Amino acid sequence: QVQLVESGGGSVPPGGSLRLSCTASGVNLDHYVIGWFRQAPGKGLRGVAFIGTTDTNTFYEATVNGRFLISRDSAKNTVYLQMNSLKSEDTATYYCAAELESEDTVVDEMTRSDFGFWGQGTQVTVSS
């Protein structure tokens, strides 16, 4: 059974940093595309950053590009989202999601419906 667990959320002031972790059990994440999504209060779920099975195959949503970094640690079966220069508009519940990568997968075209496995979410609050 695939289980994804997010951690690392919290409350930070604007300009601060957080590192979110997505750790898997029941599956080797090296074979999966991992996506980080977020849902702000009153808004829909949006993709933030994705990473394919090749670490250089990444996607970043425009508002986080240059501030967030997605990476893998295969030994820990974990994917990270390093978030720097946080802004109040980054406040949201963050979810990680996973989907087995195939030869037809185009990472930067994936949407929420393409991901079959989801974590429970972790809250990030950016406020002074």
Briefly say what this structure is:
The protein has strands at residues 3-7, 10-12, 18-25, 32-39, 45-51, 58-60, 68-73, 78-83, 92-100, 117-118, 122-126. The protein is mostly beta strands.
Describe the structure in your own words.
By secondary structure, this protein is mainly β. It has no helices and eleven strands. The mean pLDDT is 96.
Quick tags:
128 residues; mainly beta; seven-stranded mixed sheet; four-stranded antiparallel sheet; 11 strands; 0% helix
Number of strands: 11
Provide a count of the helices.
0
Measured by DSSP, the beta-strand proportion falls in over 45%
Largest sheet: 7 strands, mixed
The best one-word shape is globular
Structural class based on helices, strands and sheet pairing: mainly beta
Low-confidence stretches: none
End-to-end CA span: 40 Å
**Mean pLDDT value:** 96
| H-E order | EEEEEEEEEEE
Rg over CA atoms? 14 Å
What fraction, in percent, of the residue positions are helical? under 10%
Strand and helix map with partners:
Layout: E1 3-7, E2 10-12, E3 18-25, E4 32-39, E5 45-51, E6 58-60, E7 68-73, E8 78-83, E9 92-100, E10 117-118, E11 122-126
Parallel strand pairs: 2-11
Antiparallel strand pairs: 1-3, 3-8, 4-5, 4-9, 5-6, 7-8, 9-10, 9-11
